[in-house]
Design a protein that fits this description.
It contains 6 helices and no strands. With 143 residues, the protein is mainly alpha-helical. The relative contact order is 0.09.
Length: 143
């Protein structure tokens, strides 16, 4: 029996090759851009926050362990990211917050859109996102 076949001594996990420096810097720049856009989304109606935080975490996980740890431990973003990383779950509170924000944006769009078809496309897009969001599982109550 070779060492690779020994059930008492499983083979070690293969470490992925480190990314080239240029790719890591590009991913860090992308993560920073996504964080700026997420910060804008916190205060600007109609601008998403969650999707930009998720993209920033994805890029940071591949380019900067320090930034990724900071995001996971962040007071606002951390719970969202940990839920997403642990089973692609979304809390009910986050779902209701997104629903309220999109409903507000839909009203603003209805009141200000110059072309009804454009309002329909925007509101239809938000409805599709909300349908997807509400189909996401919720994290376990104890976690």
């Amino acid at each position: 029996m070779t060492p690779a076949e020994d059930p008492q001594n499983p083979p070690a996990a293969v470490e992925p090759r480190p990314l080239p420096l240029v790719v890591r810097w590009l991913l860090m720049a992308f993560a920073a851009l996504c964080l700026v856009l997420a910060a804008i989304g916190v205060v600007a109606p109609g601008m998403p926050t969650t999707v930009f935080v998720l993209m920033a975490a994805w890029a940071a996980a591949r380019s900067s362990p320090r930034l990724h740890r900071w995001l996971l431990n962040h007071r606002l973003f951390g719970p969202l990211l940990r839920n997403w990383e642990n089973g692609r779950t979304v809390s009910r509170r986050a779902k209701w917050s997104a629903t309220a924000a999109m409903a507000f944006c839909a009203v603003v769009i209805l009141l200000t859109a110059h072309k009804p078809w454009l309002a329909g496309v925007a509101i239809g897009s938000m409805a599709v996102v909300l349908a997807w969001l509400w189909r996401r599982p919720e994290p376990p109550q104890g976690g």
